[in-house]
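In the previous chapter we treated chains in isolation. Here, by contrast, the input contains three separate entities that must be folded as one system, with a combined length of 846 residues.
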Amino acid sequence: MLTAYVPILILFAFMVAISLIIIVLSHYLSSRKYSSRERFEEPYECGLSTGGIKPGRYPVKFYLVAILFVVFDVEAVFLWPWAISFQSFREMGYSVFWYAEMIVFLGILLVGYVYLVGKNAFDWK
Amino acid sequence: MAISFEIVFFGVFAGIAVILAIMMLSVKSPVHAALCLVGVMIMLAILYLMLHAYFLSVVQIVVYAGAVMVLFLFVIMFFYSPGASDPSRMSVHFTHIAGAIILAVILLAVITGSFLLSGNVSLTEKPSAAQMTDIEKPIAETSEAPLTEETSRMIEKQNPQLVGRMLFTKYLLPFELTSLLLLAAMVGAVVLARRSPPAEAGSAGGDGND
Amino acid sequence: MTSMEFSPQTIDFTAIMPIIIISAGILVTLLLPFAAKGRAKIINPLVALIVLLAAFISSARIWDLGRASFDGMYTADNATLFASFIFIIVAFITVIAITARYCPFLRSPDGEGLFASPEVFPLMLTVVVGAIVMSASRNLILTFLAIETLSIPLYVLAGMNLSSERSKEASLKYFLTGAFASGFLAYGISLIYGAVGKLGYHAILDACSPTAADYTLYAGLALVAVGFGFKVALVPFHAWVPDVYQGSPALISGFMASLVKAAGFTAILRFFGEGIVPLYGIWWVAIAIIAALTMTVGNLMALNQIVLKRLLAYSSIAHAGYLLLAVLIIGKEWSEKGVTAGAPLGDAMQCAFFYLAGYVFAIIGSFAIIWWLTPSDKEGALLEIDDVRGLNDRHPLHAALFALFLFSLAGFPITAGFLGKFFLFASALSHGFILLVVFALLNAVLSAYYYLKIIVAMYMKSAPEHASLCEEPSPNPWIYAVVWTCTLATLWLGIIPASILGLLGSVSVGG
């Protein structure tokens, strides 16, 4: 049944174990200038002391990029079932139809992409 | 044997999900809370996997744990300046906990109560033909008996293919409608994210290149 | 047709031709501003109008044919087509009214922002596609997606007036309640799917049995009903309406109040009539109580409003309450007789559609007049009853047309509103909803008070010293065309109803 996922599970366990070991080791082996509590809330920059975080809010541009990412991500998700359903469509003899379906879908979204480019939505002014 | 095996795994992953959900509510920094939410979503994806809903599981990771969480993080960073801890998160009032528990109980009652009362669910039996969903139907139709061991194995193996086949035949119209929906979302995001109304120059055009 | 027997030849493209045409129009109007630059201001609305006209014609061509496509998921029966006509005409009127902005001799009264964005047209066309699919859908997944396709552009349109804080607030509030409603719908749909294993209305109809209690199904239905309730603003779920209609640009408020309500009710009638009618004995009490509440709360809240747009918003809630009567009638009728494909629609659908047709023109006309009268330096969101005092002395034509629309909304004779109420209440009476009809009549009397309050202010009071209305409402041919269309339609439906009733008499459930 789910036996195919056992290797993935083992990999997962290894990932967790290795990261735990590294964290615990670095805790005991490293010399520390600061108490860990003090630095806990700060971002981690490969052991260097950070330049601090720029105060204030992030600009709204991030939000626009993020929402466009969600939109294109949802679009991309559909490509997977589409691609793997090709076999059964070919058996039925509708390969062209199968292709056309996705072309229509992507075509509509391509218009959206052209619109975004035209509106300079991807420009980081 | 197989069932007990599954139940153990379900217990582990569901337990981690619940712990992460509680951590999400209790940690101080909103960013850490968001990371806990990522964990919850990944655990849910594993649960979907165990239900053989492979497509849903992948969507859960790609869209929710991926894209939606990025959006969440940006929104958090947008509303909250890093470094400062949010005072509203410090004080968890008793009423909040009581409200959460009441909501959880209602939700549980609706799901389990309604299913158990109507006898729709059974932990051991395979679904009968009448209870089969649209996805399972085409496979069952090809075989004599509804949902034998073999056909149910087919469902497990071919789930994403079946989703694809349903999506691009029977549910083609909703699928194509989705593209219009996404298009509208794109246009809406761009229109609303503009800071101020574009300078109207009267007769001079150039609306397109804002 | 399962996926096994699927073939592309079974897709009936004539059935979905209207939405294909409009979808193409969306793409063209979205990209045209880049190519046409300055001329887009005229070309873009023109393309939108041509597209709507083409969609209207392609809908008219399949009238009476009872086409269906995608395994009956999408039905282009006459009910869908009649609803489509309403949506297309509403969109047509709104596009023309918005285009008035582009005419050189009209200063934009209701905020520059809305009309400076060429995105208005593709977004409006998307709303129309969503509405048509909503009325044609016989599958919960498709219904859900159609509702989203209708809603998302509307959230944006509500916030189009970027210079107005109220418009932004309206957009946000509409979005949050809309997202909440979608959550209810999605959860309800998943419970229904869990109980029945099907999403098509006919499959749900077969699976519903009035005897064997299925609580999963009931919980799902209740949640779906809540979702619909948010969309058409039934009473416990109506709180967003006044703020959203007040804050949005007036023409968009009119668009929402007419098109969304019409689309929502068509979808509700289809779901309750074709999907869960066997459970009529279970849901009718809930719907009856919500109907009574919706009428009463809408009217009571409207009594003391002084801002015109807010008043119309509450009145639109009350109208949703009257329309719920049609849901009850259809449930009673079909649960007794049983649904047969190809059967005539019966009174309920006819009444509902006639009522909707009458209501749509009156409410758009009212919002268009408000938009017309708002001076350019003032927000339409703030126009009060006191501002229209003595309107008759200054602009008699505007006063007369506004009064006509208000009479129609109140249900006075010779207007469409009167006959709409008359047919609906008479039908409800003949189906035995005596108590509810008495309630509705009392409410109609109550509503006359606030409609008449505006009319009295326009005709019997003297103008305020500081005139806060548009001094010279511009003599713009476009806006005249819009208001006169609404006027003629209101009178035509009110005086010669037979023409539309004849059309509706042939409306039948798809075959």
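The first strand of chain C starts at residue 67 and ends at 69. The interface with chain A takes residues 6-8, 23, 27, 30-31, 34 of chain C (CB under 8 Å). Compare these points with the single-chain example from earlier in the chapter.
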